[in-house]
Amino acid sequence: MHRPVIRQESKGPGAAVTWAEFVEAGLLRQYRRELKVPLPELRAFIDLLRQRFDVPYPLADRRPYASGKALVLEAQQQAGLPGDLWLVTVAGGQLLLTPPSESFLRRARWEGEVATGWRPHEDQDSVALIDPAATTAAKARQRIA
Fold first, then answer.
1. Using CA atoms in the order 50, 52, 54, 56, what is the torsion angle rounded to 10 degrees?
2. Which sign does the torsion angle of CA 85, 91, 95, 99 carry?
3. Residues with Cβ < 8 Å from 24, sequence gap 6 or more?
4. Looking at the DSSP assignment, which residues form a beta bridge with residue 115?
5. Is there a contact between 105 and 69 (Cβ–Cβ < 8 Å)?
6. What's the pLDDT score for residue 125?
């Protein structure tokens, strides 16, 4: 049995998903659909990003897509991730996001380095936005009423 890709260790069946896990799952879903990525190949890469950025959910953090592209490139190479599965590539001597990672970055709403919203549809004009803060506030209002 493989260890979880998103969580560092299993929390057991039926465990709730955190917001960061949900955001990472969105990116992994996109990669699986568009590039047919086998998850075992991503496990070592994600573990390296956890170590380099010192965060439990590096794919739900803005730094790998913005200021940390060089670290992502190095982690991709070190993990032996095939080039067609990379988040960051080199073109003309510059580090660039690949189309799937650029699409993911646009679909998330960011406050600082943290994803605070997620648009499940690729259309930037879509009104569908998953916002955990709004959901929490709505639940609190229901409890008070």
1. -10
2. negative
3. 6, 57, 59, 60
4. 110
5. no
6. 75
Q: Looking at beta carbons, which pairs linking 38-47 to residues 24 or more positions away fall under 8 Å? A: 39/2, 39/5, 40/2, 41/79, 41/81, 41/82, 41/85, 42/5, 42/81, 42/85, 43/2, 43/3, 43/5, 44/79, 44/80, 44/81, 45/75, 45/76, 45/79, 45/81, 46/5, 46/6
Q: What is the pTM of this model?
A: 0.75
**Is the Cβ–Cβ distance between 62 and 112 less than 8 Å?**
yes
Distances (CA, A) of 10 to 14, 40, 48: 11, 16, 18
Q: What is the pLDDT of residues 87-105, one digit of tens each?
A: 899 999 999 998 888 888 8
* Beta bridge mates, 130: 118
What does the chain come to in residues? 145
**Domain layout of the chain by residue ranges:** 19-144
Confidence (pLDDT) at 27: 82
Other Cβ atoms within 10 Å of 118 Cβ, number = 21
- H-only helix segments in the chain: 19-35, 39-53, 69-79, 99-107, 132-144
